[in-house]
Amino acid sequence: MILKTSKEILREITLCDHCLGRQFGKISISTNERRGKVIRNLLNCLNPELSTNFNKQKPCFLCDNIFERAEDIVKNISPDFEFFTFHAGTKIPEEIMKKEEMLKEKYGLQYQESIKQELNRELGKDIGAIIGKEFKREKEDVTILLHPYDSKVEYVINPLFIYGRYNKLVRGIPQTKWFCTRCKGRGCAKCGNTGKMYDVSVEELISELFLKETKGADSSFHGAGREDIDVLMLGNGRPFVLEIKSPKIRDIDLQKLELEVNQINEGKVRISGLCFVEKEIVEKIKNTHMRKTYLAEIDVCLTEEEKRKIEEFFLDRDIYQETPNRVVHRRADKTRIRKVYKVLTSKENCSSLEIYCDGGLYIKELISGDEGRTNPSIAELLGKNIKCVLLNVISIEEKV
Q1: What angle, rounded to 10 degrees, do the helices at 115-131 and 94-107 form?
Q2: Which of 85, 118, 235, 348 is most buried, judged by most C-beta within 10 A?
């Protein structure tokens, strides 16, 4: 079958050994070039009267002898950034891909390997030999994208992902950059031409030094939820992943940077537990169900009877919350069901509540009721108007 099909093809067009062998590339583990030579030699032996038809007399119909120029192609590689692993890719002209598809359909080539796959593999070997870096098929530091027919090279530098926990020690700063609602970040009179609603954020206080150290192009901050601007994040801290985009330096000392960030931002933000992670951790921290402990101060002094009533009622209690009035203009208006596991009152402080609950529960509304949008609520239970005047997150842990 292979010889018969090869004979039909070579009677019509010229193929190099790589392209001839690749038409049957998924049949055996031999290289395409070696397979092509074997097929050509067998055809010449079996058909001496047609041997000139089977020899390479013209440029290859498919690849235009691109494999003979492989060494010259990879000589253009001269990255100006740090990396340890790479993957190679190629940009193949559309007309070559169409020729390949035409051959496949015309001759019923079920085991054809694409020219793109072979070029990626062969050029990847040559690149590895030249630059002395490890070739990886996934989770590589950089993808080297070659344009072999145009003598161009592109570099797609993959991000760095750094996991840690942060504590926010001052009120009045958001977790991430909050762009001006009027100008959407362009700068206007409302925001003092800063493009932001607030001068600084947790994201910026943490990322600035990392961007400088890695020479990254930009960053994204991925938190496991977020606290309100006026809420402190205390205790063991909130999990986050800092994504550094297009870093030119990857070998950084995380412990040193952790210390420097904490010194620069003393009294504002503190980070801990830094380590390098893979991209998948971003989705994990965003989708992992967390349990949180809050310390809330309310605007009334509770009696001993009210304390007892709150502790007994809010024991493993489901809470139904419509999106709060204060955020419904920017978030989907829907009903969420979250659980309060327990509420502890203080013997020393009549206006203090420690609330242990599911992540995503709006604590201020759990206390006030939010005009009936949260049920049940502490205000509803006690039959009086109650508001939260101070709120801190004191613990975040994974739900097990």
Answers
A1: 130
A2: 118
In CATH, what number is assigned to the domain containing residue 302?
3.30.70.3190
Tell me if residue 72 is catalytic: no
Instruction: Judge whether 319 and 338 are in contact, CB under 8 Å.
Output: yes
| Owner of token pair 């991209």 | 279
CATH number at residue 219: 3.30.70.2510
Position 399 pLDDT exceeds 70: no
* Domain end marker among 127, 157, 187: 157
pLDDT at 54 over 80: no
pLDDT greater than 80 at residue 153: yes
Shortest CA distance to 62 belongs to which of 106, 31, 28, 27?
106
Q: Model confidence over 118-143: pLDDT tens digits?
A: 999 888 888 988 889 998 888 999 99
Q: Which of 253, 287, 321 represents a domain boundary (last residue)? A: 287
Domain with 314, as residue range(s), is: 290-398
Residues 317, 226 share a domain: no
The encoded tokens of residue 45 equal 């032996």
Which residues 6+ apart lie within 8 Å of 271 measured at CB? 164, 165, 166, 167, 206, 237, 258, 261, 262
Average pLDDT over residues 335-354: 96
Q: Does residue 87 sit in the same domain as residue 120? A: yes
**Exposure string for 44-54, b = 16+ CB within 10 A, e = fewer:** eeeeeeeeeeb
Q: Are 264 and 335 in contact (CB under 8 A)?
A: no
Q: What is the pLDDT of residues 57-77, one digit of tens each?
A: 789 999 999 998 888 888 889
What DSSP designation does 112 have? P
- Which of the residues 126, 141, 228, 316 is marked catalytic? 228
| Phi/psi of residue 173, nearest 5 degrees | -125, 140
Indicate whether 137 and 180 sit together in one domain: no
> Going by DSSP bridges, is the β-strand pair 142-147/85-90 parallel, antiparallel, or unpaired?
parallel
Q: What is the pLDDT of residues 244-268, one digit of tens each?
A: 999 999 999 999 999 999 999 999 9
pTM value? 0.86
**Pairing outcome for strands 388-398 and 232-245:** parallel
Closest CA to 326 of 284, 368, 379: 368
Residues 14 and 113 in one domain: yes
Q: Which of 380, 394, 335, 379 is nearest to 361 (CA)?
A: 335
